[in-house]
């Protein structure tokens, strides 16, 4: 069963959005991939791509921009160190200002979500709505064996935000880094494009059902996740029992922080660890984005591992494959290479990726 929302929307968006920008030729890839995942997530949750009407040229409107930016702001603070996590008595002072920033981001997100959620709840209550069509409907209608709703209104709203944060970030981050690395190594990009042309052709867009056959494209996405994790550490956990891991004793109650960079760039595991080399994954019989052996962390593993592995894979590979299928990409004029310097504050590219895009497909392919 397909995991991505059905119908042509919102999938061709990067294509349509960029196509309308090709007059200026240079595309802000970061913005494009983030708006793409934002569109997908809104479509999955609310059955709509935009809150407003979007822009006339097919790109996101101001509402969508601020929605996605606020989701990324909230996410950034998920990983940030805060003394009040360890000394809760300091929380009231909000010494680092984190709480203020997150509250503001949540205010913006809720400003967009609340009217949709409230209206939908009324529609279900007064019988106007009868069919479950998206995740919001699932959250409203889910009930226990006695028919009692399982989620309160507050819980529905919180769950929507939680899921959105989990979905928008990693696919966009992996696609941006993969594109940056591949533009600097055009032979890798060429190989991926040839695979897409062979498997899919140029008369239709890449679909979720093609993913199994796009082994090299998946290797590129996997390599981006290995070399460029979204955060230096995995989400913090607390151990529930004494344990011995790799010879180390970890007492019950320890805060466990796995270094994603330490694992993915470990020279004892990966040859030339700092080099973007998708070929290293091609010997695997099946190339997957998941890495249950934890030689690097993509979706992690175990009971707290990511529950969205299949959807995350579909989203990431479809996004990357469509960018490659729809456009020929190169370094912007007056630049020799894409600057791959990491930001000082996180593991994003220091400067959002800008690249030159030239359409590869017939103009009719860039419609809705
Ligand atoms: C390429 C895409 C994705 C990547 C790389 C990714 C990665 C991760 C990682 C590393 C974790 C933390 C696991 C841990 O704490 O050990 C996580 C947690 C989680 N992810 Fe994903 N994820 C992706 C997409 C998704 C999608 C599409 C969904 C939505 C269905 C999702 C839902 C979640 C949730 C709900 C958690 C929290 C689980 C918990 O705390 O028990 N993720 N993800």
From TrEMBL:
The UniProt entry's GO biological process terms, in alphabetical order, are: secondary metabolite biosynthetic process
**GO MF assignments:** heme binding; iron ion binding; oxidoreductase activity, acting on paired donors, with incorporation or reduction of molecular oxygen, NAD(P)H as one donor, and incorporation of one atom of oxygen
Positions with a binding annotation for heme: 306
- What is one term from the GO cellular component aspect held by the record? membrane
Cofactor annotation: heme
Query: SUPFAM superfamilies in the record, alphabetically?
Result: Cytochrome P450
Query: Does the keyword section mention Lipoprotein?
Result: no
- InterPro entries according to UniProt: Cyt_P450, Cyt_P450_CS, Cyt_P450_E_grp-I, Cyt_P450_sf
Query: What PROSITE patterns would the database entry show?
Result: CYTOCHROME_P450
User: Which keywords accompany this UniProt record?
Assistant: Heme, Iron, Metal-binding, Monooxygenase, Oxidoreductase
- Show the stretches that span the lipid bilayer: none
Q: Which domain of life is it from?
A: Eukaryota
Q: Which family does it belong to?
A: Belongs to the cytochrome P450 family.
Name of the protein in question: Phenylalanine N-monooxygenase
Q: Which organism was this protein described from?
A: Vitis vinifera
